[in-house]
Structures
1.
Amino acid sequence: MDEERVAMISGASRGIGAALAEELAAKGWRLSLGMRRPEMPAWADPSRVGVFTYDAADVDAADAWARETLRIFGRIDAVVANAGIMIAKTVIEADDSDMNELLEINVKAPRRLAKSTWQALSASGRGRIVIVASLSGKRVKSAKSGLYAVSKFAAVALAHGLRHAGFDLGIRATAICPGFVATDMARGVTARSDDEMTDPRDLARIISMLIELPNEASVAEFAINCQLEESF
Ligand SMILES: NC(=O)c1ccc[n+]([C@@H]2O[C@H](COP(=O)([O-])OP(=O)(O)OC[C@H]3O[C@@H](n4cnc5c(N)ncnc54)[C@H](OP(=O)(O)O)[C@@H]3O)[C@@H](O)[C@H]2O)c1
């Protein structure tokens, strides 16, 4: 791989984002990690990894982070919109503020991130955008996941919209749709043990493979599950 390629990962402090950062660093990517409280990971080489303040709720954060990334690294080849939240309420229990928060973090922030990096991704000639959506963006599994699913269906649609808008610019966009992954988020909503859920390191290997595929191997959606369901 081109040793100079640069990937931005939001929500890289823990869970899937942290596992992905470590995987991509091992594969030779230079990394711009967006976190609410920036902290250099213990494994990182600070000459190849930068940590930046990124709060998805702040409407100016994506522009600032993209600008800093370009100033430090000079290019952006891949963006992984991973930062996300879960509010375990039914569509009836929830009030507007819950809905707004989910849409802000899970949908509007990833769109802003894509917009802020669009020019740099086009200049790459093989820009990649990964929207970490969910199987909850493909089906509604339970009442309590209903509200979250509304946001993740929108996140999947966002990935498709980006894929269409970017195709002629060499940008490829993918919606990743995992079921339960062994992170704090899933531990908060299921009694499953970590062994019964997808390992975030396996998800990291999948995302790494996807963003390294050539322009002629566009993957619109990628679903992963730890359990058997009718369609996934
Ligand atoms: N775990 C699952 O079962 C599962 C399944 C399907 C999809 N997903 C999706 O995968 C993504 C990553 O989740 P995870 O499982 O790794 O969960 P996690 O362990 O709870 O980590 C969530 C990450 O998102 C960050 N984040 C949350 N709100 C943020 C904000 N306002 N600004 C910036 N960063 C923010 C967190 O940062 P802090 O450390 O600052 O809180 C953390 O780095 C999410 O989009 C989630 O919806 C997860």
2.
Amino acid sequence: MMDRIEVDRQELQGNFCRGCGYCMPCPQGISINMCARASLLLRRAPSDIILSEDGQQMMKKIEDCTECGQCSEKCPYGLDVPDLLKKNYEDVKEVLAGKPI
Ligand code: SF4
Ligand code: SF4
């Protein structure tokens, strides 16, 4: 139990998206407030939100990110949003390829 709490503590410290949406809209139409916390949603909500056909289409939009940086400028938590999006996208692709969640 304490191990689980420690894992959660590490995951939820600092560098994670709160889903507030202050960084939006994205000129490329990326649903940042969902995509930047896909890894958390996968493990804490019904995973269909991310793994369904619609969810996968939503995540694929991350490929259109131009790294313009306007989302990071608006994020009140100072997140490197493009980097966070890429990490979440990689994680989702690995899960779809069979990585256990
Ligand atoms: S850096 Fe990427 S995700 Fe952020 S606003 Fe620009 S295109 Fe959208
Ligand atoms: S990236 Fe920042 S501003 Fe955008 S939804 Fe997440 S926490 Fe909010």
